Please model this.
Amino acid sequence: MGAIIQSDKEFEAFFRENFSAVYAFMKRYTQDDELAADLAQETFIRVFERREEIVSVDYGKAFLYTVARHLYWNHCKHQRAMENYFAQLDENDTDDYDFLQEVTRQETIRILYTAIDQLPPQSRRVILLNLEGKNNNEVAGELKISVNTVKFLKKSAYETLRGLLSKNYFFVLMFLLGE
Model:
């Protein structure tokens, strides 16, 4: 028994006769017009590639719906795999980003405090109290020195720190101090 679809014209007739039914079948599963049209079109491409195997109209229709169903299942598997991949990727990226951000933060703080530790004792105390969020008046009161002395010690400390730290770290320190 030979194939019932032997010419392009016969396939075109088969396509016109069955496309809307395959499209409706796919639309019922996908709930998406564009996806249903794409899957229906891909179904006919696959059937066209194997048209010599279609020996009867009934077999042709059964084969058509079998191909459509398999394409839909493959689409669903692919979607789930992509969703899992992107969910895992987002989770890993977030974890990596948070980890790197924390490492950078901790290393920056370590470098800043190492430089601050090299300051003279009184200047170091002024800078550390500023880092705790205390203003010049509060620092002066706590250290029992004048506000002008606090300003002088801060200015002197900044000059020393500017020499000890790279430009970037110095700007981070100025930001932390609110200067």
About this structure: The chain has a mean pLDDT of 83.
